[in-house]
Amino acid sequence: MMNELVRNQCDVTNHQVNVQFLLQLQLEWQKFVTLVKQSQELKTVSYSKLYDILKQDQNEVNEIRAKRLARTANLLVLVAQQQP
């Protein structure tokens, strides 16, 4: 979407870029997105600064993702065992 705005020569504010970036993140990032929204001024902080802030939480996001995948895999095994 941002590329289309730029391509059509629309003015894109820093705030719009940051909000769009945060909206595109996967569900695992939701907790960290909320923290960033509360602690940073999205109108003034740069896109790269937002990325750097969120990158610090990458390990925790990986753990959340692994737990979710393990839970899903366990459910699939359970369903497979129930099938005749």
Automatic annotation (TrEMBL):
<protein>
    <recommendedName>
        <fullName>Integrase, catalytic region, zinc finger, CCHC-type, peptidase aspartic, catalytic</fullName>
    </recommendedName>
</protein>
